[in-house]
Specification:
two-stranded antiparallel ribbon; mainly beta; 22 strands; 1 helix; 3 domains; globular; about 40% strand; twelve-stranded antiparallel sheet; Jelly Rolls
């Protein structure tokens, strides 16, 4: 969705056929001004964009979903003319991160939510590096990620800039306060792209979100019944792993019966395992290497709630 300035032509405004390659390209052409557009998470309400809703293995319904702001914004960028900046922007809670690409240079800027992408108001810090990939007219793959309180800028897969724990870290006391209230503050992530004083094109534009793991719940007793004990690894039930122990998580935060739920310790005398507490997996149980993607299994017959018909289009080897 456009949100100011001029110069952008989106795929739907392209005069070419809807299904042609040209129809997937965003173009900007403004030699003296700037323009931007943002991702509208409310455009398709049924998809619950930027939340922890998943389109598969959903056996329960919820009225409220948790917002997700661990994101990756990626595109192929080609500058044809001009010397202005191209910017990619993501926000998380009150912080706004902008990757700014100019000829031969890239900058990462931390500011406050609501500040204009090109303004100096509200800037907390700015770091800059040379990037030879941006000198010419060749297409480059640009990527901005903010995951687990680490922000990275990559060009053609090469990490150029990244934050450290001093520059950016979670406010643990505030997060714990929100957890105790059981009503965390609502922070909706924002995603924006801006260009100025140039002619350029972007294609293969994609937005990804990280898996969100719910930490409010109760683990199960050894017989599989619900308990009043909070999830393992939640703030009220911290798990401390021993040497060569692992805490494993499923692929669906809401319905995966992973280590958060386990109430029974590992007790296999013939295997030589003693005193392995619930919620842990001994390293010697981690056997083999994943090499093939099978799930989601595919399609569900009308009379069954589980997908049992293979989806051969999504099955693939892991390289």
């Amino acid at each position: 969705m456009k949100d100011g300035g001029s110069g952008w032509t989106g795929p739907r405004e392209s005069p070419e056929a809807t299904y042609s390659p040209e129809a997937r390209i965003f173009r900007f052409d403004n030699a003296s001004g700037s323009g931007g557009f943002h991702f509208d998470s409310e455009a398709n309400p049924d998809t619950h964009a930027l939340t922890d809703w998943l389109p598969y293995d959903q056996t329960a319904t919820r009225a409220i979903f948790n917002s997700v702001s661990d994101l990756r914004l990626r595109c192929v960028y080609r500058r044809a003319a001009g010397d202005g900046a191209f910017r990619m922007q993501l926000s998380k809670r009150e912080d706004q991160f902008t990757a700014e690409f100019t000829r031969g240079k890239v900058a990462l800027i931390r500011g406050k939510v609501g500040a204009a992408a090109g303004s100096t108001g509200g800037i907390v810090w700015r770091m800059e590096r040379d990037a030879a990939e941006l000198d010419g007219a060749n297409p480059v793959v640009l990527e901005l990620t903010n995951v687990e309180y680490r922000v990275c800028v990559r060009i053609n897969g090469r990490q150029i800039l990244a934050t450290d724990d001093q520059q950016y870290h979670p406010d643990v006391p505030q997060l714990l306060r929100e957890y105790r209230l059981r009503e965390p503050a609502e922070y909706k992530a924002t995603v924006r792209i801006e260009a100025a004083r140039q002619r350029c094109a972007i294609e293969h534009l994609s937005l990804w979100r990280d898996v969100y793991y719910i930490n409010l719940g109760n683990h199960l007793d050894p017989a599989g019944g619900a308990t009043h004990d909070p999830f393992w690894a939640s703030p009220d039930n911290v798990v401390r792993l021993g040497d060569d122990e692992y805490f494993v998580m499923g692929d669906n935060s809401e319905v995966s019966l992973d280590a958060r739920y386990w109430g029974a310790p590992v007790d296999l005398p013939r295997e030589g395992n003693y005193n392995v507490s619930p919620g842990r997996v001994p390293g010697r149980f981690m056997l083999g290497k994943a090499f093939f993607v099978y799930w989601p299994a595919g399609y569900r017959p009308a009379t069954l709630s589980w997908g049992v018909e293979p989806d051969f289009g999504d099955m693939r080897f892991i390289h």
